[in-house]
Design goal:
- The protein has a domain at 15-107 and 172-263: P-loop containing nucleotide triphosphate hydrolases (Rossmann fold, 3-Layer(aba) Sandwich), CATH 3.40.50.
- Helix content is 35%, strand content 23%.
- It contains eleven helices and ten strands.
- It has a six-stranded mixed β-sheet with strand order 6-7-8-3-9-10, sandwiched between helices. The protein has a four-stranded antiparallel β-sheet with strand order 2-1-4-5.
- α7 crosses α8 and α10 crosses α11 (251-263).
- The longest helix is centred in the C-terminal third of the chain and has 18 residues, at 186-203.
- The radius of gyration is 19 Å and the shape is globular.
Length: 270
């Protein structure tokens, strides 16, 4: 199996030369859902900025509104109040420059890996002229030898690599990650965390990650935003200035993890 690191070393130089990722501004955003018990507020006056090429992670109690914020940033839903902008332009609908990778790879079982990765270009009528990007994306995630296999023939980690390739084929400026490693076994998850970092460092897209794994958040991200319970408010923004590559046993990571757990009210056993 070719690792992402090996694939990256052989990938075309074009990826190194492209502009950095999106600049995202979340300004005074609140959001409500209409439910059987009336209106339910899930976000409360959020202000958040993601710089081009920055990796930001969101932590908070289950159901507090983290994934709702991701949907708003992706343009899948519109905020009830406030504004979300990309590079100074309001986000009003989905766009190929912003791609969501979910916990479930959601690969179509009747399509080969290559055909799954090609979906975005095919939907936009670009597959004929830009089909080489599919092969490039498969190389980037180390699946260049698996383009003709079907999803049921892949391990969980390989399926998630295919989902990442499907995102990368669009050259996203923002990769939106909604618990993308949550269903993987612990060893595969650790491997995929490292490989996700390698992709981000190579491609320089901006990344916005939701995770319930505090250690994962601080291993990956430059800033970790800690949310309150619903309706989500920003309790703290924790900066992680450790350089990459990071080592999981570094005492600073333990300090940052303890700080986040304290803010979440979960530090009693630490």
């Amino acid at each position: 199996m070719v690792s992402i690191a090996q694939a990256l070393s052989a990938a075309p130089a074009r990826a190194e030369q492209k502009a950095q990722g999106a600049h995202i501004q979340v300004s005074n955003v609140s959001h409500w859902f209409d439910g059987p018990q009336g209106r339910l507020q899930v976000l409360d006056e959020l202000d958040l900025e993601i710089q081009p090429g920055e990796f930001v992670a969101l932590l908070g109690p289950s159901g507090c509104g983290k994934s709702t914020l991701l949907r708003l940033v992706a343009g899948l839903d519109a905020a009830t109040t406030g504004e979300i902008a990309q590079d100074g332009r309001p986000i009003t609908e989905p766009d190929p420059s912003r791609i969501v990778v979910f916990q479930d790879p959601t690969l179509f079982p009747w399509r080969t890996v290559r055909d799954n990765v090609a979906l975005g270009l095919q939907a936009r009528g670009l597959l004929g002229s830009q089909g080489a990007r599919v092969d490039e994306a498969l190389r980037l995630v180390g699946l260049q030898d698996f383009g003709k296999v079907f999803p049921h023939q892949l391990s969980g980690g390989m399926a998630q690599r295919a989902a990442l390739a499907r995102a990368l084929v669009n050259d996203p400026q923002l990769l939106i990650l909604d618990e993308p490693l949550g269903k993987l076994d612990s060893l595969t998850r650790l491997t995929m965390q490292t490989e996700l970092l390698e992709l981000w460092q190579r491609q320089r897209f901006s990344a916005l990650l939701v995770t319930h794994d505090v250690e994962e958040a601080f291993f990956l991200a430059q800033r970790v935003v800690v949310f309150s319970d619903r309706p989500a408010r920003i309790e703290a923004v924790i900066h992680n200035d450790l350089p990459y590559p990071r080592h999981r046993g570094h005492p600073r990571l333990a300090e940052l993890r303890h700080e986040a757990l304290r803010l979440l009210g979960l530090d009693g056993s630490w």
